[in-house]
Design brief:
Layout (H helix, E strand, L loop, with lengths): L4 E5 L5 H12 L9 H5 L6 E5 L2 E13 L6 E9 L8 H15 L4 E6 L4 H9 L3 E5 L9 E7 L6
Parallel strand pairs: 4-5
Antiparallel strand pairs: 1-2, 2-3, 3-4, 5-7, 6-7
Length: about 160
């Protein structure tokens, strides 16, 4: 586990700070993709990352949950890292922490989506050992996705 990061469950109080930076960090409007529900009702499943030397400074966030339909499946809805901090393993640490929590809850696999045109996301998931398959119109007409999945647990760094 990384000692330079503080990883903890999300809380409802994290919503405002995450929402304030989400559009800039994504480089586009995320809208209801980052819904308050994930923080208030599903927060214990999500992961908040802060720098150990500045615990008040969020550097990444992951929204995820355990599937109600497939209880052995953990689903990552969204994750984002401060652009100034990318390439330092924070995204990997968020995924590993989430994976460890979901493994403790009985999940044996994890799934995430990426747009086929999002090359950095595709490379990220492939580097973590995810296998992807194309799903046309997965989230609506003209909204194709790559559905990534792999076994749990993920290695913590």
């Amino acid at each position: 586990m990384r000692r330079d990061l503080l990883l903890r469950p999300l809380t409802g109080a994290d919503f405002a700070s995450a929402r304030a930076v989400a559009d800039d960090w994504f480089g586009r409007t995320v809208g209801l993709t980052m819904h308050r529900l994930f923080f208030e009702q599903l927060g214990s499943s999500g992961v908040h990352a802060a720098a150990a030397d500045r615990p008040d400074r969020m550097v990444g966030v992951l929204l995820g949950l355990r599937s109600e339909v497939e209880p052995d499946l953990a689903y990552i809805h969204l994750h984002v890292v401060d652009p100034a901090m990318r390439g330092q393993g924070i995204g990997r640490a968020l995924y590993a922490e989430f994976g460890a929590r979901m493994t403790e809850r009985g999940c044996r696999r994890v799934r995430a989506l990426a747009a086929p045109t999002n090359a950095p996301s595709l490379r990220f998931h492939e580097a973590l050992g995810f296998l992807g398959r194309f799903a046309g119109a997965h989230v609506g007409l003209g909204q194709d996705r790559i559905i990534f999945e792999r076994a749990l647990p993920l290695e913590r760094t």
